[in-house]
Every structure is written in structure tokens, then in C-alpha cells.
Amino acid sequence: MSYVPEAGIEQATLAEQSLQSVINEIKSVVGPSGWLSADADIAPYLCEQRGLYRGSTGLVVRPTTTQQVSKVMTICSRANVPVIPQGGNTGLCGGAVPPADGLNIVLCLSRMRSIRSVDPGNFTITVDAGCILAEVQQAADQHDRLFPLSLGAEGSCQIGGNLSTNAGGMQVLRYGNMRELTLGLEVVLADGRVLDCLRALRKDNTGYDLKQLFIGAEGTLGVITGATLRLFPKPVSVTTAYVSLPTLQSVISLLSLSRMKTGDQLTAFEFMPRFGVDIAVRNIHDIRDPLPGEADWYVLMELSSSVNDGHLDIMLETLLEDALEAGLIIDAAVASNDSQRAAMWRVREALVEAQKFEGASIKFDVSVPVMSIPEFIPEASQACLEVLPSVRPLAFGHCGDGNVHFNLAAPVDDDGRFGNWTPVFNTVVFDIVEKYRGSISAEHGIGLTKREALGVYKSDIELDVMRAIKAALDPLNTLNPDKVIPIRL
């Protein structure tokens, strides 16, 4: 009697054989320095930075040209092998982590780091998708121009990842997120064809704006290999203030007043609670509170201009005087030099860093209409406290664009099981976000973390359109499968 293997085992063996054939073919395309397979070498590509997800892969591919990416995608499409595009792997939602079965390749563009061209007169820069964000900022600066995207991970995140997650950061209020900063894209489609929309035009009304499909798609529709980005005049005058306020409503009122008094010269407007300042001072050794006394809320605001005529200092001084007279603020400190300015920003940056010293945390990256922030934060905080009275809400963020990082720090006496509360708090917080017609993801993306929640809080019609676009551009579902779009129940 002959042995007949079980169907599942046979299919798995065929898939492994197919993958090995693909791997051999890819190696010949990218050359010996274009791939990694040793366990120690590929380990950093298999998990996201918080350690919540870990996968496996047959090969990490590191091409150097768009043509190599195209050939790799053609090979994988022909064999129906999944491809997981990956940038700097600094995301927080598991969107770049490969599946656990290992029957895939990770496509990392870290060796595609050319600044293709800079056109100062047109205020544009064209770059490879593997360029580190800080490199793009520096290239713009060398031509007396500004690329304004600013993130905590700018020393390691890549432009392709910034585009794929529609990154925002500290200066969205003035310059917009990556959608607004992008004029053109070069994208390799799932079948290997190269979509060249790499135009440096501000007006191009020739049908659908195809580049917008791939911005924020998290690598599920195509592999971004190049981008033409907008540049701006480089600020030569910057003034920064650290302000204490009595209420959250005062924060929003100060924002409105600031925008009216300063116009588009208001570059950043970050808000923080007293609890956030306390943990920064307590846990990070070089942090000092810029103001004496204590208040419930703080704002870090910054104005900038490409003209250095002293008007910003006068403008900010007048604004703060008006705010004080109106009872909106308690106190304010204005940076008189770059060192003081950096110290103020360090408080905001350290707030994020300090959370890990306070134990586990559950993080929400949501957005609501700006005017709803004073209602949303107390309501969400109270709802979470009713679930777990010892939880410590920590809400801060980019107030000017409605982006609230609504985090929950573990109780002081946490027994290590705080993470088990995540599904409960997800429902509590997301329901309130939905009530205010907000978004469950403001700038971090969907990935794996929020995929199923998207199925709850997006309408059926929106999900149908998303699935139709995915099916049209990736009919074999080989591009970052099982990310972003919820599994249909």
C-alpha cells in the first residue's frame, strides 16, 4: 500500500519548493550583496520595534535600483509568492512584519538611497524611497531649502515608509502631511510593471491622481521606489514659547487666537498634560521644567519665517500678552537662544521616551475635530477610569491638526498583565472617537494592530471600495497580504 501525503502537507511542500525556486532566481537578479538569509542577519527585519509582532521570511532582498525591484516583483508575482515591503521598520502597527509561515520575501529598499535631483528654483527634490528622512532634510538644507517633515525617528525612517504611512509629525499644522508634501511617485506594481508618475507639477488635472492611492496604503497596492517632494523656503527666524494653561479649553482657544494673530507662520502647536511633564522630569535625567509652579496643561508653540526682520518676536510677545489678558494662559517662557529652544522641545520629546520607565502602556493614535478635543479627552479618560480606576491616562499631541496621542499608562502596581486590557480599551476609546466622527488612526497607520477595528469603524461602502482597489492592483494578494484591509467575515 503506497503512502499518500495529506493535502496540507503536500501543499506546504509545494509552496516551499516554489519559494526556494523564487529565492534562487531573485539572488541572480540582485547579486550576492543584495540579499540576506542568515538568521542573525535577517532577525532585525522580522519584528517591529515594540516586539508585539514577529514573523519569518525565506529571504530579505535589498535591491539597489527600480529595475531590480521590478524584476523581483515579476518573479514573485509569477510564482504567487508574497512580498512584504519594508522601510526603516520604525512603524508602530506591525505593517512591515512578515507572516509567521515564512513563505514570503521581505523587500527592503535601504540600499536605494540616491538623491536623484534637487531643483531649488522649482522647490522640489526627487529621491529614492530608501533615503533616510534626515538625509532628505540635509539635501534640501544644502540648497537653502526646507523639507519640513519632522519625526522622532527621522534618523532611521525611510521616505518610502513615510509615504506608505502618510506620516505627519510636528509641523503638519503649517506644511501638511506626506500627501500634501508629495508631487509625484514612482511605483512598482504587484506584477512588476513600473508606474511612472514622477512629475514635479503642482497642477496636473489629467484624470485620477494615481499617486494618492499609494500614499498611506502601507505597501498593499505597490512598492514606492521614488518620489518628488515639495520644498519650502528655509526659515531663518524661529521663535518658541513654552506656555502653561489652566484648562484644555484654554489650549484650543489659544490655538485659535494664535492662528488669527500669526497666520501661516504658526509652525507647531504641541500640547501636554502635567502628568506628561512630570514623568519626563522624573525619568529623563537632562529634563528641566521650563516654568515654575504647576498647571494642568502646557503648550509648546513655534513660529517661523524665511525673513529675519525681528517681527516674529514682536508678534509672539503681543500674542502672549493678549492671551494673558484674556485669561487663557497662566505663564509663558520664550526661548532667547537655540539652547533654550532645544530644551523646550526636549520636554515634548522626552514625554514619549519617559513612558517606558513608567511600565507598560496602551497607545492610541487618534484624531478628532480640533474643536472637539476639550470634550473628547475628558470623556475618553473618564470612560477608561470607569473600566480600570487605577489606569493613568496620558493625552498629548499635535493639537493644531486634531491628532491626539491618547495613551494609557499601566497602574503603578501593575502585575504585568496590563496588556490584557487592550481589547477592552480599544472598544471604549474607538467608540468615543467614532462619536466625534474622528479617525482611529491619525498618523501611525493600520497595519495589523488596527486592521480588525477598521472593519468595525469604516462603513461597508468604504471597505468595498478599498477591497475593489486592492483586487484591481493586486489580484493575487501578494503585496503585504493580511495588512490594513480587514478579513471579510
Shape: globular
Structural domain count: 4
Fraction in beta strands = 15-25%
So what's the CATH class of the largest domain? Alpha Beta
Widest β-sheet, arrangement of strands = 15-12-14-13-17-18-16
From the alpha-carbon coordinates, what is the Rg to the nearest angstrom? 24 Å
What oligomeric state is this?
A: single chain
> Helicity, in percent?
25-40%
CATH topology tier name of the largest domain = Uridine Diphospho-n-acetylenolpyruvylglucosamine Reductase, domain 3
Assigned CATH architecture of the largest domain: 2-Layer Sandwich
Sheet bearing the most strands, described? 7 strands, antiparallel
Rounded average pLDDT? 93
Q: How many DSSP E strands?
A: 18
Overall SS class:
alpha+beta
Structure description:
Belongs to the FAD-binding oxidoreductase/transferase type 4 family. InterPro entries: FAD-bd_oxidored_4_C, FAD-bd_PCMH, FAD-bd_PCMH-like_sf, FAD-bd_PCMH_sub1, FAD-bd_PCMH_sub2, FAD-linked_Oxase-like_C, FAD-oxidored/transferase_4, Oxid_FAD_bind_N. The chain is an alpha+beta fold. The protein folds into four domains: 7-108, 2-Layer Sandwich (Uridine Diphospho-n-acetylenolpyruvylglucosamine Reductase, domain 2); 115-233, Uridine Diphospho-n-acetylenolpyruvylglucosamine Reductase, domain 3 (2-Layer Sandwich), CATH 3.30.465.10; 237-355, Alpha-Beta Plaits; 359-444, Alpha-Beta Plaits. 36% of the residues lie in helices and 20% in strands. The chain contains 16 helices and 18 strands. The protein has helices at 7-30, 39-42, 66-79, 133-142, 159-164, 172-175, 178-181, 211-214, 248-262, 274-283, 311-325, 338-354, 373-387, 422-435, 451-457, 460-473; strands spanning 35-36, 59-61, 83-86, 105-108, 115-119, 124-128, 145-146, 182-188, 194-197, 223-230, 232-233, 237-245, 266-273, 297-305, 331-334, 361-367, 392-398, 403-409. The strands form four sheets. It has a seven-stranded antiparallel β-sheet with strand order 15-12-14-13-17-18-16, with helices on both faces. Helix 13 packs antiparallel against helix 14. It is globular and about 70 Å long. 45% of the residues are buried.
